[in-house]
Write a structure and sequence with these properties.
This protein has 348 residues and is α+β, with helices and mostly antiparallel strands. The chain is built from ten helices and eight strands.
Length: 348
């Protein structure tokens, strides 16, 4: 029973980087009341600047009055006034994040919540899908990628409340946005550029896939036969004095490798990314730190995997069981699968 509890704790910590952002609070939504609670307050969010077509005040079925405001290269959706009383506790909060995938299409990740029998919040979650803006920029359809945990279809239609007769490009004309049709060739070029820009937002996916491929390569490649010399033999007999190199080669103990270099270190880096996002640091700084985090994640997996191999060899030589090494490898594989699922969900 004691071993089972330890294994359960290990599973939780090894997935800390993913579990810490399971609800994505502070990343895609927030319960902090720092948004508008009236339409007039919502209008003040935009000032006098030129608006994007998706920006403005909307009324969304099943939710209520909302505002969508540009935030760097993404858009934030705020709940102004909920259409039902129990959910009014979220008035004035950041409800969802929209990520452009084209000139009039978006991926979104939003907050969902579940009430208990007493009327309180049982749990929160994050669920995504797509948004398609119509040609007049006065309606959009929100389509979720799946039903809620309660089996409810949350798809909805939203209608623009403000501005309803303003050209979002000039913010002065009385004609609706996108009234003038453009030539097909021009539209294709615009869509192509928009698509290229949206793909650039997923640069980290390429980095992640590349690092995972490197991990698989290092674990499956066969060592080339080499001539043994006295010099190389001496190197093998002496463990590395560099603690990182010692860990990477699998010369560190399994416990230290797993808990210190993998679980704790990766968890700290993951939390640091969340803190940096909330602090609104520059995109370049956040991007470089994210690359470092992903690189270290793969580095830590390789070192821990090799430590498990060393542990297995030691236990086999002593004619003992090596269950901890097997459990560690299973947890590492589950962590990789979970990361791949997260990446896959971004493109749904």
């Amino acid at each position: 029973m004691k071993r089972f509890k330890i294994a359960l704790l290990a599973f939780t910590l090894v997935n800390f980087v993913f579990l810490s952002s399971a609800n994505a609070e502070g990343i895609y939504w927030s319960n902090t009341k720092n948004g508008p609670t009236t339409i007039e307050e919502a209008k003040q969010q935009f000032g006098s600047r030129t608006l994007d077509p998706i920006e403005g005040v909307w009324f969304e079925e099943k939710l209520g009055s909302i505002s969508i405001v540009k935030n760097k290269k993404q858009f934030r959706l705020y709940l102004i006034q909920s259409s039902d009383e129990p959910s009014s506790i979220f008035n004035g909060t950041w409800e969802a994040t929209l990520i452009p995938t084209g000139s009039s299409s978006f991926n979104f990740f939003g907050r969902i919540w579940y009430f208990n029998k007493q009327g309180g919040i049982n749990k929160y979650g994050t669920q995504g899908g797509t948004i398609e803006l119509n040609s007049s920029a006065n309606q959009f359809i929100k389509t979720y990628d799946r039903l809620s945990d309660a089996g409810i279809n949350m798809n909805s239609l939203s209608r623009k409340v403000w501005p309803v007769s303003v050209d979002t490009k000039s913010n002065k004309s009385s004609k609706p946005a996108f009234v003038k049709e453009k030539k097909v060739a021009v539209k294709k070029n615009i869509n192509k550029i928009s698509k290229q820009n949206s793909l650039l937002q997923y640069w980290w996916v390429v980095v992640l896939v590349g690092l995972i491929a490197f991990f698989i390569y290092t674990q499956t490649i066969k060592s080339m036969p080499k001539k043994r010399t006295k010099k190389t033999s001496a190197k093998k007999s002496n463990p590395s004095s560099n603690f990182l190199l010692k860990f990477y080669r699998g010369e560190e103990s399994l416990g230290i490798s797993y808990w210190l270099y993998y679980a704790v270190a990766v968890g700290i880096l993951s939390v640091s990314i969340d803190v940096m996002e909330k602090a609104k640091v520059g995109d370049i700084t956040l991007g470089l730190f994210s690359i470092f985090t992903i690189a270290y994640f793969i580095f830590a997996m390789i070192g821990t995997w090799r430590s498990a191999n060393s542990y297995t060899s030691m236990k086999i030589a002593a004619k003992q069981t090596y269950g901890w090494a097997t459990l560690t490898k299973v947890l590492l594989v589950l962590a990789v699968i979970r990361s791949l699922v997260e990446v896959f969900n971004l493109f749904q």
